[in-house]
Structure of LysR family transcriptional regulator:
Amino acid sequence: MRIDLTDLQLFLCIADAGSITHGAARANLALASASERLRNIEADAGVPLLQRHARGVVTTEAGEALAHHARLMLHQRSLLQGELRDFAAGARGTLQLYANTAALTEYLPRKLAPWLASRPQLHVDLKERTSVEIVRAITAGLAEAGIVSDAVEAPGLIRQAVAEDHLVLIVPTTHPLASRRSVAFADVLGEPFVGLAANSALHAHLDDHARAAGRALTPRISMHTYEGICEMVAHGIGVSILPRGVARRLRGRHAYRIRPLMDGWARRRLCLCYRDWSALSAPMQSLLLHLGQAQEA
């Protein structure tokens, strides 16, 4: 059959109105055009679909079957249009977002949750990478956007600061460094270190700065959670470096001292990072707008 959706809509209008004239008006078609379409529909079906009488028309048994399936098909079209609108509006689909360790563990959960909760058909694939890796991926067109530290260069990309992300040193309460007001990263490199798992973006970031200083981080133990790191430091296993928000949040559960790092790269901010706003997908634009409006001091 060559009947299209416009034909089906017209047939339903005529069947529901009980009149070709009134049905054509409901379908916003001229009577001559509607009559021609109706003749083609019946010719294509090969069977009478309407019984004509002085007061209008009624559907035949075949016409009832066509009307039934027409309603189903038009309903499915409506559902499809709704889903496509959701995709266009960023309420459905899968969104890939790249973020460094601090953004992934501390910043994003509370910021992303309300936005995602209002989009039950949308899925988010969070990918942890170092800020340097994220900048490279965006520059190469392999990622739409990400959340990075402003301590890294991002030539040709747009960055918008959304939160502070200073790194601090945490030390056991009796450690000699606990008496200092601030500490240089170089002074930490000779200390037993409690690190985050080697595949974390934070570990890679600290390792890069250690190599730049001509040293290497040699963790006494590597933990998979910030909670585990703080537990180790509180028991004197070593020192560690964490985002300031994490260190402050967990200090109520563990006894350790927090000391600022003097190095400029440790006083960083989290930034939204992308190349071209107009090239971003609708879901990504929606998310970045939300994050940009929910800034922290």
Q: What stands out?
A: The first helix runs from residue 5 to 17.
